[in-house]
Design brief:
Helix content is about 30%, strand content about 30%. It has about 400 residues and is of the alpha/beta class. It has a six-stranded mixed β-sheet with strand order 16-15-14-17-18-19, sandwiched between helices. Helix 6 runs parallel beside helix 7.
Length: about 400
């Protein structure tokens, strides 16, 4: 295009000099023709801009991240003049249109149409535009370029991937979830829920572990049965990473939460997903329908919570002092969060920390060592890690 413009300017200068110094009918005719060329070319672009028709479709407006989705785009010319140099630009940041056997620049004869049947794949979850980003219209002399904006873009809702774990190795070593009834019930008995054995007590109620520890017989209280729940805490504070690294960390956090909740639900074990997004939310997953309802909302979750994750955790612990098993999925291991975890350990809560990070800082590595001395297991997960190998 630049070359054509230079040639045109050289021609315009030449005919202008010719008409100025020599005059004559031919000289002025050439001058007028050169003046009219850009006017006609620009008017042609405007005409194609107004008359070009294109459509793009997909069989579904909802897709799972990484899945291949059929995609079709159609360009049509219903007029009596050809449309030259119609160039198509696609979104390629968050999704990719497979362009095998695809012509990026179309030439449409009168009454002609060009159809492209291909596929697209989305790399990140969320709600965003895909397919045709813009259409460039170039005149027949390559003098002007006009961008045709897509006024009604094709938008998809992209859900995160649900990893179907074969096992869940982050559960307590001495617990087998398949042995529990619905609700993740463990008949845990604390020393505070026992009393000294009295003559006439049922021998079957003797708590042998406490008796061995104390050196005398203790029996269970009748109200000592305790339910232990799986509480999955999700950190929705702003991720410090930039660009697509930020999106990758956010997606990984959601994929971890979904993978754990799905595995437990398949094993008939309930779980509660807790997160703070403008307000505190609790989603209890007990059956496929409740999992599906939560799954459908994950594309709209935003990582911009202003409340520190440590405060969200502490507030919950104060309101729910019973012993539970906490799975903390976070992207930043701050000093405040470590302090909250230490308080939870002091309350005899069981915790595991899943830290999603592109690269741990020295400060975070030191925090991990401190938590390990307290018996809190911390698993560092990179966005590219296979969850089946890391937590399964």
């Amino acid at each position: 295009m630049r070359k054509n413009r230079i040639i045109y300017l050289a021609l315009l200068i030449s005919v202008t000099v010719l008409a100025s110094f020599f005059g004559g009918t031919i000289s002025y005719a050439l001058f007028n023709m050169c003046i009219g060329i850009p006017i006609v070319a620009f008017a042609y672009n405007v005409y194609v801009y107004c008359r070009l028709q294109f459509y793009q479709t997909t069989p579904s407006k909802v897709v799972e991240k990484g899945k291949i989705l059929p995609y079709e785009v159609l360009f049509r010319n219903h007029d009596l003049i050809p449309f030259t140099h119609v160039k198509v630009n696609f979104y390629d940041e968050q999704c990719q249109v497979e362009q095998s056997d695809q012509v990026m620049e179309y030439y449409l004869l009168p009454g002609d149409e060009k159809k492209l049947k291909t596929t697209l794949k989305c790399f990140y979850r969320g709600e965003y535009s895909v397919g045709v980003k813009q259409v460039e219209i170039i005149d027949f002399l390559y003098l002007f370029r006009m961008t045709y904006p897509v006024m009604w873009p094709l938008k998809l809702t992209v859900l995160p991937t649900v990893v179907k774990l074969k096992n869940l190795g982050i559960l307590l070593d001495d617990e087998d979830p398949k042995t529990y009834d619905f609700g993740f019930v463990e008949n845990m008995l604390l020393e505070s829920d026992t009393r000294k054995y009295r003559p006439g007590d049922n021998p079957k109620q003797i708590h042998w572990k406490v008796a061995a520890k104390q050196g005398e017989l203790f029996t269970r209280r009748e109200s000592a049965e305790i339910k232990r729940n799986n509480i999955i805490f999700m950190d929705l504070q702003k991720v410090d990473e930039k660009g697509f690294g930020k999106l990758a960390v956010e997606d990984k956090i959601l994929e971890i939460v979904l993978a754990i909740a799905y595995y437990l639900q398949v094993q008939n074990i309930s779980s509660t997903i807790c997160f703070n997004e403008d307000q505190f939310n609790e989603c209890t997953i007990t059956h496929p329908e409740s999992f599906g309802n939560f799954y459908q909302t994950t594309s709209r979750i935003l990582f911009n919570d202003q409340t520190p994750f440590s405060i969200v955790l502490e507030r919950y612990l104060v309101q729910h002092p019973k012993l539970d098993y906490y799975i903390l999925v976070t992207h930043g291991l701050t000093e405040e969060l470590c302090t909250s975890i230490q308080k939870a350990v002091a309350y005899e809560q069981q915790l595991i920390v899943l830290l999603v990070n592109l690269e741990c800082s020295e400060k975070e590595k030191e925090s991990i060592r401190q938590l390990e001395t307290l018996g809190v297991r911390t698993v560092v997960i990179h966005p590219d890690d296979d969850l089946d190998q890391v937590i399964g």
